[in-house]
Amino acid sequence: MGAEQLCTVRSGGKTSKGKALLETSEIIFRGDFRLKIPFASLQSTVAQEGELRLKWNDGSAVFELGECAEKWADKILHPKSTAEKLGIKPGLTVSVCAVRDADFMRELRASASAFSNTKLLQESDLILMGASESADLSNINGVHPALAASGALWIVYPKGKQEIKEVEVIEAGRAAGLVDVKVVKFSETHTALKFVRPKAKR
User: Fold this and answer.
1) Which residue, 45, 62, 134, 149, has fewest beta-carbon neighbours within 10 Å?
2) How far, in Å, CA of 59 to CA of 164, rounded?
3) Are residues 196 and 125 in the same domain?
4) pLDDT tens digits, residue range 82-136?
5) Of 155, 167, 153, 154, whose CA–CA distance to 131 is shortest?
6) Are residues 42 and 101 in the same domain?
7) Do residues 174 and 118 both lie within one domain?
8) pLDDT score of 16
9) Domain ends where: 43, 77, 111?
10) Do 58 and 13 fall within a single domain?
């Protein structure tokens, strides 16, 4: 879930009060009219006098956000990398199972204190596990015991596929005794869902 703000928006000669959502790759507005503006489509992003002013190929909009305008502009202009969204920092012990993204693997290997994509490292701060279909989720039981007490397991799975659905990922994680706490965009084709141990079991 991204940032959320009640505000007034002017766009296409119309003005409406409603709710603006700043997501990881788009800004959404729901009021008397609706807007969904991908960051990739933006030609201009300016914060001035409490207003966030956006222009794209076939339109423009002004979001009256007050003191949040500059923060939102900065997040649009400097979106987090995949590693940042997953909470990956230098010095962590990271294990990867069945996630195939060569560029991302290089980034992980360069920043991790210990890294493996061939075997599970005990006391891993982060484990990334790929799942292409619901049957793959049974692997969670063999993976999560390698987590450090406060470690996180990310399940990376395809978006919008009948072979595996978000509800199945959540149910599988909970069945393994974990708690789902966050979902992020991993790539244009995949989503990542974060699980941790309940506080009482850390």
Assistant:
1) 149
2) 36
3) yes
4) 888 888 889 999 999 999 888 888 888 888 999 999 999 999 999 999 999 999 9
5) 155
6) no
7) yes
8) 97
9) 77
10) yes
Q: What is the number of domains present in the chain?
A: 2
DSSP 134-190: GGGGGGHHHHGGGEEEEEEEEEEEETTBTTB-HHHHHHHHHHTT-EEEEEEE-SSSE
- CA 122, CA 93: separation in Å to the nearest integer? 9
Largest CA distance in the chain: 59
> What is the pTM for the complete model shown?
0.71
Q: Which of 37, 53, 77 is the last residue of a domain?
A: 77
The mean pLDDT value of the chain amounts to 93
Same domain, 103 and 195: yes
Q: Do 176 and 99 sit in the same domain of this protein? A: yes
Residues 63 and 15: beta-carbon distance below 8 Å: no
Closest alpha carbon to 126 in 137, 139, 113: 113
